[in-house]
Amino acid sequence: MADDDIDEDAPIFAIAAAAELAAMHAQTLRQYDRLGLVVPGRTQGGSRRYSLRHIRQLREVARMSAEGISLPAIARILELENEVAGLRREVRDLEQRLRDEMQQRPGARVFAAGATGAVVTLRHGARVRRATEVVLYRRPSDPPASPQPTAEEALQQRIGD
After folding, report:
1. Which of 25, 96, 107, 139 is the most exposed place for a label (fewest CB within 10 A)?
2. SS3 per residue for 89-110
């Protein structure tokens, strides 16, 4: 079985094993569960079951706590990290859908968002004015007219203007 086949969300560790893996006392895990910091799965009988992802979260909570971050602040950080992870998954899914759509429509037109938010159709080979339009997709086969700055470079250019 390859490492890629391991389900990091499978609730497989009892509280004693999870506590040992996280280098914590089992009572600390119970407290974190009550506070909503790391909430494990439950068996039908109500016993806690921790996954590999939970173990990583427990270690991260311990690290932040050792750095002096309060438990409510840690809870907020974990909440935001979970939100970011969900948004990254959503972006990946949308990018894949866009790639799939572009493969199904090889002659499709390219669109950009104008400065006012309006959708602008671009002619094949048209150059985008960076100050007013954002390119959402460029076919890999189209060579860029000039080196395109990264999003960070473009932002720095805009701030510097």
Report:
1. 107
2. HHHHHHHHHHHHHHHHCCCCCE
